[in-house]
Design goal:
Helix content of chain A: 40-55%
Structural class of chain A: alpha/beta
CATH superfamily of one domain in chain A: NADH-ubiquinone oxidoreductase 51kDa subunit
CATH class of one domain in chain A: Alpha Beta
Number of strands of chain A: 17
CATH topology of one domain in chain A: Rossmann fold
Strand order of the largest sheet of chain A: 1-14-13-17-15-16
Distance between the termini of chain A: 106 Å
Oligomer: heterodimer
CATH architecture of one domain in chain A: 3-Layer(aba) Sandwich
Distance between the termini of chain B: 90 Å
CATH architecture of one domain in chain B: Orthogonal Bundle
Strand content of chain B: 5-15%
Number of helices of chain A: 19
Strand order of the largest sheet of chain B: 1-4
Strand content of chain A: 5-15%
CATH superfamily of one domain in chain B: Electron transport complex subunit B, putative Fe-S cluster
Largest interface: A-B, 47 and 36 residues
Largest sheet of chain A: 6 strands, mixed
Chain lengths: 671, 209
């Protein structure tokens, strides 16, 4: 017989387990609609791999695990995916979360699956992979992925493997009924776990309020080396750390894991699920759920498909909605109120408690803490709940941490014992969340500070580099200037002056005739340009009503006079050289034409769009006039038809062009 | 010498005191040089409390400059992102009275926000990139920009410079990821009647929160 230890504190609430143990496990059947939340476990939500309209078979993967701490989801029955959307789920927040909805077809068609009854032939990592693929997460309440729990590091030796069949919370009998009816499966599952972990010993811990279950287990475990230990009933001996202390006398250190003291703990329901996954190849798609409370006519345990709406399941047990004051998922100590009857049963739904108001009255109003110390007496984690309550009220988060708030398992024993009815656990939950939130914030702010500082550094560096470049350039210029002073030919300004002087000299020295002509022509063109600009300016000034109009007119007059003079000079020069050689004349003519065109283009470029459009129009009109005259002429002189036709088309084209130019001018004037 | 000192005990005491003062003075002087702390440690501690949004709502170019200003006697109530909790923490650290948040510098917002660029409206001007104090905006000239949501502190400094107003501040909604338990309503403990005196119906008819 094993030595049984005791843990500090604990309470003895009324058990209320017998109501749901009167009948055997019943099949809940296939509801018309299954709602499978993507997050039913601790860790990252899984990712859907099916789309709306797909037909799925029972056991088919519908959502894949994302990351190490995550599990996949399987279709609990065959049917059509009707939606992947946000639905209300069983969560104390009453918020919606993404779910996959399956409309079942009632055929319950299995995907071909195959188990490994001969699992010892498989490697351990393969077995753990099978458990992960079966979507098994702790079925006791928290829903921690079992595969993660079973992946024990090689450097840690496990002395004890514990299968947790305590089920200490009142009302819940899901594990008890499993022990009574499926003891052999539990033992098989424990054997698989034993093979996987290779502990020194394997113990199934059961409270002594389940004598039938213990007897069944002991019968099934005969000859396997698996021990079935029973110990006095006390709440919360089913807590992982508490059970480890009861069975081994070892305490898991604060903030540590059971593996730190050489223990691995698995829930009894999960053990059966592991057996089904390995030996039968069935993923976790159904579970045993206790439906109990005075508001159901036939409290009993159901084997229910994951995703079954609670309303459907409750109806099977004879739910009387009018008697029920609130529906609780889990037990009366640690459960929470379900926001709506349509939320689905998930992998962690071990119990649906539908009490009447008389059975589980609403908590009376909380009163002041009288510091009686009853909470500290019952606390299984040996904390000081009254102190924690005090600090939680004052939001002294640092002090809460110093008083080991994070060792609190939220069992609710303190709230149960409190004569002032203070909802202590709610204070601890809120404070824990606040501390975690602040830690997260602090981490984030550290991160942003690092980014801010590296940005500042980068900016400073960029500035410094720019400054350095500027300094280098300055220095180089100074050096060049100094070098230029010595040699006298490197200064760009000096060079430019020299170039200009050379040009002037060349102009002066060059007295050729062509050059004289060029010079005169150049003079005419420049003055013409000046006249044009003066005109433009005048126009602008007139438009603006400037005072400078008179001055501008005078200036324009002067420039015109100059232009006339220049033209006269040019003509005189040309007249004085009538006998210029023809070839030079043609060259000159070509050059003049080019120059004219260039000046014209320049002038055009300088003109405002309005002016440009106007000149364009005038020119075109002139051309049109000319072509018309030509056409008339050729008609009168009876030219060839082709010529006349060509001329006609030209006239037409020009007319169109004139029209376009007119429009352009209009738009230019408008703008 | 000894005779002289014995004759004039006052002189002896004086000499002893002067000597001790010199020795301890030298010791303190040495310690001040040897164990000199770099920078301003109090400013570092203040900076640790500040939320590091680098939003500049306090009127300083970033959290660090404000921390230094606080260390030099600036008021502690100019940080809206830090809120009342931040002011409380600063007051505890500096041992001064906590004061209400200075509304002039903005109001405390409860939900954390993240900037979001409506990407098809972005013209790629890089102005928001230059404004972001923590390099949380990605993009290049004439290319679409986007905010790295996980890095954004929600300081909203990028909203103002955007020439096409395509940046929104999106406030985080309550979801399963950020939901957590709230503290019980303190009013529930301030009922005026003694619980055991209440009539049975009202005790059973009341629903739990």
């Amino acid at each position: 017989m094993r030595k049984i230890f005791d843990f500090h504190g604990g309470i003895h609430p009324p058990e209320n387990k017998q109501q749901s143990l009167r009948s055997r496990i019943a099949k809940a059947g296939i509801p018309p609609e299954l709602i499978i939340p993507l997050s039913q476990h601790i860790g990252a939500p899984s990712h859907p791999v099916v789309s709306v309209g797909d037909r799925v078979l029972k056991g088919q993967v519908i959502a894949q695990a994302l990351g190490f701490v995550s599990v996949p989801k399987h279709a609990p029955s065959s049917g059509i995916i009707t939606a992947i959307e946000d639905r209300l789920i069983a969560h104390p927040s009453g918020l919606v979360a993404p779910c996959i909805v399956i409309a079942t077809d009632g055929r319950d068609e299995w995907l071909t699956h195959q188990g490994y009854p001969n699992y010892t032939s498989l490697e351990k990592p393969e077995l753990i992979e099978l458990i992960r693929h079966a979507g098994i997460a702790g079925m006791g309440g928290a829903g921690f992925p079992s595969a993660v729990k079973l992946s024990v590091r090689d450097d840690i030796t496990i002395d004890t493997l514990i299968v947790n069949g305590t089920e200490c919370e009142p009302y819940i009998t899901a594990d008890d009924i499993l022990m009574r009816e499926r003891a052999d499966q539990i033992i098989e599952g424990a054997k698989i776990l034993h093979y996987l972990i290779e502990p020194g010993e394997t113990v199934i811990g059961v409270e002594d309020n389940k004598p039938e279950g213990i007897a069944a287990l002991r019968a099934a475990a005969k000859g396997t080396g698996i021990e079935v230990a029973s110990f006095p009933t006390k709440y919360p001996s089913g807590g992982e750390k508490q059970l480890i202390e009861i069975l081994t006398g070892k305490q898991v250190p604060s903030g540590g894991l059971p593996s730190d003291v050489g223990v691995v703990c698995q829930n009894l329901g999960s053990t059966v699920a592991i057996y089904e996954a390995i030996a039968l190849g069935r993923p976790l798609i159904s579970r045993i759920t206790t439906v109990t409370g005075d508001a159901v006519r036939e409290p009993q345990n159901f084997e229910v498909l994951i995703g079954t709406p609670m309303r459907y399941l409750l109806a099977k047990a004879g739910y009387q909605a009018e008697k029920n004051n609130r529906l609780i998922m889990g037990g009366p100590m640690m459960g929470f109120t379900v926001p709506d009857l349509n939320v689905p049963v998930v992998k962690t739904t071990n119990c649906l408690l539908a009490p009447t108001a008389l059975e589980l009255p609403a908590p009376p109003p909380a009163q002041a803490c009288i510091r009686c110390g009853m909470c500290a007496e019952v606390c299984p984690a040996s904390l000081l709940p009254q102190q924690l309550f005090w600090f939680a009220q004052g939001k002294e988060l640092e002090k809460l941490e110093q008083h080991n708030l994070f060792d609190c398992i939220e069992c609710g024993a303190c709230s149960y014992a409190c004569p002032s009815n203070i909802p202590l656990v709610q204070y601890y939950r809120a404070s824990k969340a606040e501390i975690l939130h602040q830690r997260e914030e602090h981490e984030k702010s550290e991160h942003s500070r690092a980014r801010f500082e590296s940005r500042q550094q980068r900016l400073e560096q960029e500035d410094a580099e720019k400054e350095a470049k500027r300094a280098a350039r300055k220095q180089a210029a100074e050096e060049r200037a100094r070098a230029g002073g010595r040699q006298g030919d490197d200064d760009p300004i000096q060079a430019a002056i020299e170039r200009a002087q050379a040009k002037k000299a060349a102009l002066q020295s060059d007295t050729g005739k062509g050059n004289e002509l060029q010079k005169l022509e150049q003079a005419v063109v420049t003055i013409q340009k000046r006249v044009d600009t003066a005109q433009a300016k005048l126009k602008q000034a007139q438009a603006e009503g400037s005072d400078l109009v008179d001055a501008l007119i005078a200036g324009l007059e002067k420039t015109r006079v100059k232009l006339e003079k220049a033209e006269q000079a040019l003509q005189i020069f040309r007249a004085s050289q009538p006998a210029a050689p023809t070839d030079t004349a043609t060259v000159d003519a070509a050059q003049t034409a080019i120059r004219k065109a260039m000046t014209a283009r320049q002038a055009e470029a300088e003109m405002s769009p309005e002016q440009r459009a106007k000149t364009n129009l005038t020119k075109l009109e002139q051309r049109l006039q000319k072509s018309r005259e030509k056409l008339e002429q050729s008609r009168q002189t009876d030219q060839e038809d082709s010529i006349i036709e060509a001329l006609e088309s030209t006239v037409e084209r020009l007319t169109a062009k004139v029209e376009a130019a007119r429009q352009a001018m209009n738009t230019a004037t408008d703008s | 010498m000894t005779d002289l000192l014995l004759q004039f005990p006052l002189l002896a005491a004086l000499l002893a005191l002067v000597g001790m003062a010199a020795v301890f003075g030298a010791l303190l002087g040495f310690a001040a040089v040897r164990f000199k702390t770099e920078g301003n440690p109090i400013a570092d501690e203040i900076n640790n409390i500040l939320p590091q949004t680098q939003c500049g709502q306090c009127g300083y170019p970033g959290c660090r400059p404000y921390a230094e200003a606080i260390a030099n006697g600036e008021d502690i109530n100019k940080c809206p992102p830090g809120g009342e909790a931040g002011i409380q923490a600063l007051a505890d650290l500096l041992d001064v009275e906590p004061m209400p948040l200075d509304e002039e510098h903005g109001e405390e917002s409860n939900a954390p926000a993240v900037a979001f660029i409506r990407e098809d409206e972005c013209i790629g001007c890089t102005k928001c990139i230059q404004a972001c104090p923590i390099d949380a905006i990605l993009g290049a000239a004439k290319q679409m920009h986007t905010v790295i949501a996980s890095e954004c502190t929600g300081c909203d400094l990028c909203v103002e410079p955007c020439p096409v107003d395509c940046i929104d501040m999106i406030y985080e909604k309550e979801s399963m990821q950020n939901w957590h338990w709230r503290l019980p309503n303190p009013v529930s403990r301030q009922v005026e009647i003694i619980a055991s005196d209440r009539p049975e119906e009202s005790a059973s008819g009341e629903r739990a929160a």
